[in-house]
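Supplementary Note 3. Input sequence used for the single-chain structure prediction.
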Amino acid sequence: MKKLKQLNPSNSHGDCLRTCFACLLDFDSPEQVPDFAERGKVYETVLREWCKKEGYIYTQMPTHIQTKDTEIQIPVIFPTGIGIGVTRYGGIPHAIIIEVFAKVDGDLTDYSFKPIWCPLQGDDCQDYEVLEVGFLSKVV
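The predicted structure, written as discrete structure tokens, is reproduced below.
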């Protein structure tokens, strides 16, 4: 994984998501990845089409679902590894690189997320709550 900094941190949407993809794919620059967020609500379609063209599948899911009376943890079906954490930083959606850990205890699996790279702040990325986890898998 290359540790790259995002190019447009002051942009209205930044380019943290494409920078995370560039980091995970060992690209030299975020500019080698489309700026998905620039495309508004259709970004997920563009993101998945680009990943497919590059030979990858991207899967993103929430870490928890909050209901009125209870909190349900969504089981992550992927092995422990590096993913993209969609977070809130000062109330703004933000993507960082995370490592995912699974602890199995009987029928229960508890997941934890360790931030390892922030395209905005570098190694100083501990003040994030991971809301969604995305995994990039190579198509074989």
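The chain has a mean pLDDT of 75. Residues 43-54 form the longest helix (12 residues).
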